[in-house]
Design a protein that fits this description.
Strand order of the largest sheet: 1-4-3-2-5-6
Strand content: 15-25%
Order of helices and strands: EEEHEHHEEHHHHH
Largest sheet: 6 strands, mixed
Helix content: 40-55%
Length: 213
C-alpha cells in the first residue's frame, strides 16, 4: 500500500451554479492495523438513491453504491499509512487524510468549495496544516447529509478492499474479515505472530505485544 493514495473522478455535468458543498468522512480510526482513509464527495444530479451511513448498509449494498457514486459524483480520497499514524497520532492522521481528500478534489474541480461538511464534532480547521476551506462539523452527519453518506461509503469500501488485499501478504490476522480491528481472532494472532509492518505501534494492544516479546 502506498503512503499516499488519492483519486478523483470529475463528471462533466451536474454541478451547475449551485453552492459547491463537499461531504467528508473517514474510515479506520479504530483498527490496530492498516491506514486511515478519508473521502470527499460533491453530489451531482441525479445522485444515487439509498445513501446512508455506511455502517447501516449491508456489504452488498455498499458495494453496489460505490461505483454509482464514483461514476456520477466528484470525489477524492486521502490515505494515511500506519507509520504516519504513529508519528502524528490517530487524530492528527485523520485530520491529514481529510485535508488530502479535499485538496485532491479541489485540484480536480479547479474551484474551491463554498462549504465542507464533516462527520463528527471537529474539523481540520486550525488542526492540520494545509486546510483552507470553510468547514462545519456535524455529529451523525453520515446519516443526515447525503454528501457525507456518500463519502462514508467510498472511504469504507476503499479501506476494506485495501485490508482484504493486505491479508494475502499477512494471512495470520484475519484482515479480510475484521479489516484490522481488534477482534479476538486478530488479538490472538497478534500475540502468536507479533506485529506486521502494517500494525500501528502506537496503539496499546500492539505496543504491549512488542513490550513483552
Amino acid at each position: 500500500m502506498d503512503a499516499l493514495v488519492m483519486m478523483c473522478a470529475t463528471p462533466d455535468k451536474g454541478l451547475g451554479a449551485a453552492p459547491l458543498i463537499v461531504g467528508v468522512d473517514e474510515a479506520g480510526r479504530g483498527p490496530l492495523a492498516g491506514p486511515v482513509v478519508a473521502a470527499a464527495v460533491v453530489l451531482c444530479k441525479p445522485c444515487p438513491e439509498g445513501l446512508d451511513d455506511s455502517k447501516k448498509l449491508s456489504r452488498a449494498r455498499r458495494a453496489a453504491l460505490e461505483p454509482q457514486i464514483q461514476s456520477c459524483c466528484a470525489w477524492g480520497l486521502g490515505v494515511v499509512e500506519p507509520e504516519e499514524i504513529d508519528r502524528l497520532n490517530i487524530f492528527g492522521a485523520t485530520m491529514l487524510a481529510m485535508t488530502l481528500a479535499v485538496a485532491r478534489l479541489v485540484e480536480a474541480l479547479a474551484c474551491a468549495p463554498d462549504s465542507v461538511l464533516i462527520d463528527g464534532n471537529l474539523t481540520p480547521h486550525g488542526r492540520c496544516e494545509g486546510w483552507r476551506w470553510p468547514a462545519r462539523a456535524i455529529v451523525g452527519g453520515d446519516a443526515l447529509e447525503p454528501c457525507i453518506s456518500a463519502a462514508s461509503i467510498l472511504a469504507k469500501e476503499y479501506r476494506d478492499r485495501l485490508m482484504r488485499e493486505a491479508a494475502h501478504s499477512h494471512p495470520h490476522y484475519g484482515w479480510e474479515r475484521n479489516a484490522g480491528y481488534g477482534t479476538p481472532e486478530h488479538l490472538a494472532a497478534l500475540k502468536t505472530h507479533g506485529p506486521s509492518p502494517l500494525h500501528r505501534r502506537s496503539f496499546a494492544p500492539v505496543a504491549q505485544v512488542e513490550m513483552f516479546a
